[in-house]
Amino acid sequence: MTVYDNLAFVLRNCKLAESAIKTEIDRAATILGLAELMQRRPKQLSGGHQQRVAQGRCIVRNPKVFLFDEPLSNLNAKLRTQMRLEIKRLRYRVPTTSVFVTHDQVEVMTLGDRVVIMKECRIQQAGTPLEGYGRPANKFLAGSIGAPSMNFVLTMLREDGGQFFAESAGMRLPVSPAHLPVLRAWRNRPVILGVRPEHLVLCDAGVAGSFAVRVEVTEQLGSEIVLESTLDELTISVSCIDPTITLQRDEVVHLRVDPGRLHFFNPNDETSILTGVHK
């Protein structure tokens, strides 16, 4: 069938008059930029155009809810980026409630107004994408959102001269004063420390709160460098490094992090210790 016939198929099954069908198809074609493709057949369309036709078949029905079930999973990286923008524009032009199912973290952050994250058929957290990113309810959520994934290190919370620190082999990070009311109850107890790769910053040796890691692998992405490093046999990921910096394998570099960016999780059930604490 041609693009026009594909869009008309469901409306003809509903016994609409051809004039009404044409009106709905013209509206959908204008929204999706398909007006010049009406007489083409599927094999004459690119993957992106085929996705638009599929969206058009939904639009012409004027549904109360759109359901997108991983619509971009079979597209290449460039086309996936293009179609994410197309879907975002579509939501502005057709303000209909949309349910979007995806395993892609970028799609979660860019397309959702509200996000429901599930594991084994159970809801782990619901809220805005930034709430899931900034205040994850548990370790699973913290590792699910963000690329590269959050770093996790088993540490002990220690107090020294009134200052609290998260300590492990080769690392001693100060704790934010804003978190002390909650973390005091965990003094001298093990906690899982979480820190996102983009919140780690290269610094000079000797900077307060810094720690040393050994360079393992670097990925030059043009706009940034992603670093895989080791700390006492643990792998630590670091992103957003200045792409003009040259790092050699086995080189020792130093990292620091804003204490307010640290996350802490209960090692028993992996829930966030800081739930409800503004970050």
Write the layout of secondary structure elements.
Layout: H1 3-13, H2 18-32, H3 47-59, E1 65-69, H4 77-93, E2 97-101, H5 105-111, E3 115-119, E4 122-127, H6 129-134, H7 139-144, E5 151-160, E6 163-168, E7 171-174, H8 180-183, E8 190-195, E9 200-203, E10 211-220, E11 225-231, E12 234-241, E13 252-257, E14 263-265
Parallel strand pairs: 1-2
Antiparallel strand pairs: 3-4, 5-6, 5-8, 6-7, 8-14, 9-13, 10-11, 10-13, 11-12
Question: Notable features of this structure?
Answer:
279 residues; 5-stranded antiparallel β-sheet; 8 helices; 14 strands; alpha+beta; 2 domains; elongated; OB fold (Dihydrolipoamide Acetyltransferase, E2P); Rossmann fold; single chain
How would a textbook summarize the main sheet?
A: 5 strands, antiparallel
What structural class do you assign from the helix and strand content?
A: alpha+beta
Query: How many runs of DSSP E, i.e. beta strands?
Result: 14
- Level-1 CATH class name of the largest domain: Mainly Beta
How does this model look, in words?
It is a single chain. The chain is α+β, with helices and mostly antiparallel strands. It folds into two domains: 111 residues, P-loop containing nucleotide triphosphate hydrolases (Rossmann fold, 3-Layer(aba) Sandwich); 115 residues, OB fold (Dihydrolipoamide Acetyltransferase, E2P), CATH 2.40.50.140. The protein is 28% helix and 30% strand. The mean pLDDT is 90.
